[in-house]
Each structure stands twice: as C-alpha cells, then as structure tokens.
Design a protein that fits this description.
Blueprint: E1 7-12, E2 32-37, H1 44-51, E3 56-59, H2 68-71, E4 79-82, H3 92-97, E5 101-103, H4 110-124, H5 127-136, E6 152-156, H6 160-171, E7 175-179, H7 185-191, E8 194-195, H8 199-205, E9 208-211, H9 225-230, E10 236-239, H10 248-257, E11 262-265, E12 285-287, H11 296-314
Parallel strand pairs: 1-2, 1-3, 3-4, 4-5, 6-7, 6-9, 7-8, 9-10, 10-11, 11-12
Length: about 325
C-alpha cells in the first residue's frame, strides 16, 4: 500500500504525552500523520467522534475495548495496533468483518516484575506512611517493618512474570511456593520453588501472596471473601496482573476490617480510577495507576514496533498479527 493521500494514525491514552517521542516515527514521514490523544474515554460515542477520521489506531494494553459496535462505526479504520501480543477486549471477528487488520507488539515481563517488588517492599516496610510522616513533620518511626528473609512468598501463577518474581524472592532468602490450576511439579522444580498442594494451602501459609495469572473464566474472582479469610492477618496481597482475579468488594472489606495487613494493587476494574472510588481512600492499600508496563524501555518497544507494524501493513505484508 503505497502512494495516495496521507493516512492518519491516532495514539490513544498517551497519558504522559510521550508516544511520539518514545520511538522514531520518521520512517512514516510523508505517508502517515501521527496524532496523540492524552485523555482517556471509553464512551463509544466519544470514541467515534474522536477516532472516525483515522485510518490507524494504536491502543495501549486493554484499556479501551474495541467491540463490534465500535468497530462498525469506524469505517475509515484499516489497522488497529495493540501493545502486547494478547488482547481480550478486541472483537477480532468484527475487525475482520470491517476489513481491519489487528497487530501487536512485543511486551517485556521485566517491568511488571520490578513493580511487583516495588509494591511488596513498600508494603513490608511501610514506605508510604514513613515517607509521608517525615515530610509532614509527623512521628519519627511509626511502623515496624515485616521481614522478607525466611518468610513465605506464595505465587498464584508461575509463568514468565511469576517465575521472575520467584527468582527475586529466592534471592531475598524467602521460602517460595507457587500454585495455579495447571502448574506441574516439574515446572515448579525447574524454577526452584515448591508446588503448593492447593490454592487454599498457599493462601493460608503465605506471608506475602502475589498474583500472576492470565484472566479467564477459571481465574475470574479466584480470590474472594472466602479466600481472603484464609490469609493470615499479618499477610499482604499484591496484584499486578488483572483486577478481576481479585473480588474488589471483598478486598475492600478485608482492608477496612484489618483482615489482612495490607494490599498492593496496580490494576483496577475501572481505569482510570474515578476520583470518588472507594479504593482511593481504602486503608492498608498501596496503589499505583497501572504502571506495571510503563517504563522507557517498554514504551520504546511498544511504539517502535508499532512503527514497524505500520510500515509492514503499508507494504502489504503485515506482521505480528492478532486474532
């Protein structure tokens, strides 16, 4: 696909305004006009008004759903690029019906591993409370930190991210156990961790629990009120995977009652989180606005490979196809 009028490409949810500078877009000069949208909306009418004039859309992760009802209203759209190679909120059949090619990009597992440990360490040592008190003239030392060495780290999921989290836990001298519905002893042995006999045993015996599962029918609501009741009152829960794996209302109740010592969250049922959402003021919660993948290297990969995807599409040989 060469020649013809200039095509238009929308970078949506570019919150930091770095989409056009995180990678080199110059290979598209004279062929594609790139426009960044820093604001978020998932209202279909607003999305149509915003995106109807674009041939190409680059979307970050699964923040904006692309159901058939939306794709049917974007007749100009020809290429949809999602960061990562898995996206559950795109209607691929509708994309094909509308003649829209869907492509992905590589996504590094390093960034979410590092954020998992930032949350876990922040919880264990009360960093938010202590830093806030120090800056505001509050009490000098108000928390007693939780040790990592010799404590049990329970991992729900031992894939690319979970296995790297396990390696860091082992380096801290932690007793690391893992469980998932299809995890085998051979895989656990390969990573160097113990296979928990059940989800329930892992929750009941762990000092720290971290979620690293793919969201699906078997994992949706996997951690609810009954599971949180199994956890030790001194235990911490960290979720950098998908919000729907943990029942949000049950977690809120556990935090308010002190059923668990605290939670670290980077993912939410609604994103961005509304200003009046109860999680914003929940006690014992260390929360970040879905930063797991937001690093310079990851953005360079996302947007750099988006450029490659566009060039390949324009040349008639699309790469990294999804669907």
């Amino acid at each position: 696909m060469t020649g013809g009028p200039l095509l238009r490409c929308a970078l949506i949810d570019d919150f930091q305004g770095v989409g056009t500078t995180a990678a080199d877009w110059s290979p598209l000069a004279g062929r594609v006009e790139v426009v960044s949208f820093p604001g978020h909306t998932d209202d279909e009418d607003e999305l149509v008004a915003r995106l109807a004039g674009f041939d190409i859309i680059v979307t970050l992760r699964e923040r904006v759903p692309f159901p058939g009802s939306l794709l049917d209203r974007l007749p100009r759209l020809r290429l949809l690029i999602a960061s990562g190679m898995r996206n559950t909120v795109i209607d691929y059949a509708a994309a094909a019906r509308n003649g829209v090619t869907v492509c992905g990009t590589v996504s590094s597992s390093t960034a979410p591993v590092e954020l998992t440990w930032a949350l876990l360490l922040g919880l264990a040592r009360g960093l938010v409370q202590e830093s806030t008190a120090l800056r505001d003239g509050g009490p000098w030392q108000q928390t007693v930190g939780a040790d990592l060495h010799g404590r049990r780290l329970g991992l729900l999921g031992l894939g690319k991210i979970g296995s790297k989290v396990a390696q860091v836990g082992l380096a801290f001298g932690m007793d690391v156990v893992a469980w998932s519905g299809n995890l085998t002893k051979e895989r656990a042995d390969e990573v160097g961790v113990a296979l928990a006999p059940s989800k329930e045993e892992l929750l009941a015996s762990s000092d720290f629990v971290s979620v690293h599962l793919v969201l699906g029918e078997r994992t949706r609501g996997l951690i609810g009120a009954a599971e949180l009741e199994l956890m030790r009152p001194t235990a911490y829960l960290v979720n950098t995977s998908r919000a729907a794996i943990v029942d949000q209302q049950a977690l809120l109740a556990a935090l308010h009652t002190g059923r668990i010592a605290g939670a670290g969250m980077d993912v939410f049922d609604i994103e961005p989180l509304p200003a009046d959402h109860p999680l914003r003021t929940a006690p014992r919660l260390l929360a970040t606005p879905h930063l797991g993948y937001v690093t310079r290297d990851n953005y360079a990969t996302y947007y750099g490979e988006a450029v490659e995807d566009i060039i390949a599409f324009l040349d008639g040989s699309p790469v990294r196809l999804l669907g």
